[in-house]
Amino acid sequence: MGKRIVCACEDVTEADLAAAVARGFRDVESVKRYTGFGTGFCQGKSCLSGAASWLSDHGLAREQAAPFTPRPPLTPSELRAFAGLDPDSLGPPGPGIPPEPEPWDFARLRPEGALPERCGVAIVGGGIMGLALAYNLAKRGLTDVVVLEAGYLCAGASGRNGGGVRMQWDTETNIRLARRSIELCRGFARELGVNVWLRQGGYLFLAHSDRVARRLERSASLQRALGVNTQILTPGGAREIVPELDDRRVVAAAFNPDDGVIFPWPFLWGYAEGASRRGVRVETFTRVTGIEVERGRVRAALTDRGRLACDVLVNAAGAWSPAVAALAGVRLPNEPHRHEILVTEPLKPFLGPLVSVLDDGLYFSQSMRGEIVGGMGDPREPAGLEQGSTLRFVARFARALTSCLPVLGGVQVLRQWAGCYDVTPDNSPILGETPGVSGLLQMSGFVGHGFMMAPAVAERMADWMAGGARDEIFDRFNLARFAEGRLEREDFIIG
């Protein structure tokens, strides 16, 4: 019985579903991510009802086994069909197709039992920042930690990104943080026992204008001075790395072979499981509804499962961080901006690096399973917590991708989704203490690069919180800089 196949596209069996439930994944979205069912060619259309029924019969409540919404497009469709559409004729970005059924009532999935009455550190946000911090705190002996996540693990931006990790940045601080993060990614499987599928095929940045080419050259000079092996290439040099590239619009390129891509979901699970093994409580489907502040100091997090007294509260809620800070009467300048992404059918491996065109924000890579995964920012995208999927994005992305690699025109798009960038006025994070509210620490505002910076940032923040030295990033990137007019500009942003 255990060998009976539930999802033929991904070869997922009933035994795989049982293993997911046994590991604590208690809702269909989480089980889907752990096993991969519903992410293949049919996008759940042939397996979803059967999987949901089996889960309902084997331990999950009917509410927990509620089917997810298959991602658009309705059927696999060739990129060239989308590329033939005029994105502007489709209008400005709209709400799009929602990522989950409406209303998605997380209260139905709330864990049984009460929260502890108090803890030393409460972390709001179970994304990569919050989980990495929790693990690093526990590693340093601070185990009285509770992570409060409003949805399932991987529900936010950490589970919706392209998985890129790179050392090519404009500033010394970001280059050093990224170098350390990639070093930690290399040892992740040994330390936490979870394979994140790190593939260091490099990042190939393309410039379509002289202005961007000069920027690549300046950044590469700084990167080399800091020990990063970035090379400036001619269009022909870029084509040697990606032979399928149409280089007619390419002015110059930058390539660092040590950059790479990891698989986001096990990255989060690894930190969550590692933290839990050391005594941290990770509470999913637990929404923070208030922050109790008394005489200028944080006293407790108020949740839909009760009050959690704490000595320190860390706001690591990503694009939701301004709303969390507002519960304590604090205004953050962050704004959420939707960023859409898609995946194609798998192809025979041919693409080594992640490729990005800085002029328009296009990026794409090939996964270890062979799919092309990529996204592209939209300058017309308004601020807002929007995670719907739009036809406008697929049209813009397909045009840009097939212009860059025409050979991909006949490749079929399987699914698309969206997450939110957490954007600050200077594209740099907000870290450390909060003026006027003692015990409230900020850990947000990373735009689209928080995922790749989290290992190094969490390591430094945990050192400081555990009584070690205070790293300069907690002064450089503090909230007070905006009131002081002291911005820390970072422009090497994709999308």
Features of the shown structure:
nine-stranded mixed sheet; FAD/NAD(P)-binding domain; 495 residues; alpha+beta; 22% strand; 21 strands; Arc Repressor Mutant, subunit A; eight-stranded mixed sheet
Name of the CATH class of the domain at 108-160 and 265-334 and 426-484: Alpha Beta
Q: Pairing-aware structural class of the strands and helices?
A: alpha+beta
Q: What is the mean predicted local confidence, pLDDT?
A: 93
Helix content: 25-40%
The gross shape turns out to be globular
Q: CATH homologous superfamily of the domain at 108-160 and 265-334 and 426-484 - what is it? A: FAD/NAD(P)-binding domain
Largest sheet: 9 strands, mixed
How many strands appear in the DSSP assignment? Answer: 21
- State the helix count: 15
Unreliable runs: none
Radius of gyration of CA atoms, rounded to a whole number: 22 Å
What is the CATH fold-level name of the domain at 108-160 and 265-334 and 426-484?
FAD/NAD(P)-binding domain
Bin the strand percentage.
Answer: 15-25%
If classified by CATH, what would the architecture of the domain at 108-160 and 265-334 and 426-484 be?
3-Layer(bba) Sandwich
Query: What is the topology, as strand order, of the major beta sheet?
Result: 3-19-15-18-17-16-7-9-8
Give the N-to-C terminal Cα separation. Answer: 46 Å
Which helices and strands, and how do they pair?
Layout: E1 5-7, E2 12-13, H1 14-22, H2 28-35, H3 48-57, E3 77-78, H4 79-83, E4 118-124, H5 128-139, E5 145-148, E6 164-165, H6 172-186, H7 188-192, E7 203-207, H8 210-225, E8 231-233, H9 235-241, E9 252-256, E10 260-261, H10 264-277, E11 281-283, E12 288-294, E13 297-303, E14 306-315, H11 321-326, E15 335-344, E16 354-357, E17 362-366, E18 372-375, H12 391-404, E19 412-423, E20 430-434, E21 437-444, H13 450-465, H14 473-476, H15 480-484
Parallel strand pairs: 4-5, 4-14, 5-11, 7-16, 14-21
Antiparallel strand pairs: 1-2, 3-19, 6-10, 7-9, 8-9, 12-13, 13-14, 15-18, 15-19, 16-17, 17-18, 20-21
Helix pairs in contact: 1-2, 5-10, 5-13, 6-13
